[in-house]
Fold Lytic transglycosylase.
Amino acid sequence: MKKWIMLTLSASVLAACQSTPTTTQTPTTANEPMHSAELPTTESAPVASAKIDTVDHLLNPELIAPVPAPVVKEVTPQQEADLWQRIRRQLTMHVPENDRVSAQRNFYLKHPAYMDRVAKRAAPFMHLIVEEIEQRGLPLELALLPIVESAFDPFAYSHGSAAGIWQFIPGTARQYGLEINWWYDGRRDVYSATHAALDYLTDLNNLFDNWLHALAAYNSGGGRVSSAIRRNQRAGKPTDFWSLDLPRETRAYVPKLLALADILRNQDTYQVSWLAIENQPYLTLVETETQIDLALAAEQAGLELEQLHHYNSGYNRWATDPEGPHRLLLPQQNAQRLQQWLAASDSRDLVRWSRHKVASGESLIVIAKKYHTTPQAIQQANNIRGHLIRAGDYLLIPAASRDLDDYSLSADQRLSATQSRQRGSYKIDHTIVPGDTFWDLSRKYDVNLRQLAKWNGMAPTDPLRPGRKLVVWLSEDDKPSGVTRNIHYQVRSGDSLARIAQRFNVTIGDIEKWNQIKRSNYLQPGQRLKLIVDVTRMTNDI
């Protein structure tokens, strides 16, 4: 009986093998193993052998060769599509969880629109900044520093006389090779200032061997940070950044950068995303050996003048400096057009020229002001060594090809826009006279000193040049009556020019001018001073 049953099972298995189709079929899923019956055969085999192979595979699936998993090539940070992700993957600084970092992080998280505006400003420049940081092997957190410094505004100017996206003050800028003159301010040149800023930061880190100390020193100066470290060492206190007694601005400055880095590194946790920036070079350098009119450059490159000037915010005027060479940053396609034009042009085609007949009494300075250029540019264009020119002579003057109002991002036009911005109900135009200071003028008009400087695109410590016009904004209640009176004031015991100026709401410079005296002169009791005062703005204790 048992023998008959075994023969029956063998026959059934053999019948199943003989009736199986020989065509190959596709598995229903990628992970479902093929059975041996689905594999194509290349030669005849004994039925018994086929039966044994089939049964073995059916009873032992592990004998089937595993299907290799697809190879996924890892994307490097440099291959990321979004430049923020390229930065994100290379952030290395430790971010502590403390109140100072939390406060700054909360500010940025509550203002996503602000961060989008910053990203738009950063978009043309961020790639070249990241490339330079990577080439130097510096922390990628430094790419976020212009957000803290200037919100990526190339025309930013602080109350401390710092300019550009990296906020250089004049002394440090010149120390690191940035030129500042009438035509050009290297602090606002994003390309040059980026190299200078990274040089400076590298030097500071070499000095302190600590990036947080270096960042603090970038903000408040290496000497101040060194002094704070020495004080803590003498007192037996820790010398890490968080333990140092530093100015309030610096104590918040480093946490701002760390907060930004933390938000970017953990953006999924915070559920935020910054406006994407394509991880591709956006701007290309174009070299020019001689002076070039920015309007002509924009025209030949196929760009709007304001757009070209924004990319090249270091240029103060309608053209580059007559002394070359210079560089311009332009989008790649526009750069190619400009390079082709430059290659086919003569250097004298890069600016427009005016023929000027020297009038009697004219000097190079007078002529230069008329054409919005410099005496040196006229001398260079006409091969004049000295300053002597004669009436009747003809001079070739490099001049703007368009109306100066069209150069909206030049220093003069930006100042005009700043001064025209409504800040109060009533505007006064004040012409600076020798001896004027922001302090005197703020007391005279009863306005905040920093606001007065800001209304005029200046810092409180900037020098006031005689003849320059300042605007003063007043509320309706402070509007002067226009009623002035000449009075003669008799100096009292204990009087000083400052006290008299405050009493009559005038400036020390005004008193000096009206009386032909200097503030270094001692006032004598009984001495009479001439004053021109607005009777509605005098104090009551005359």
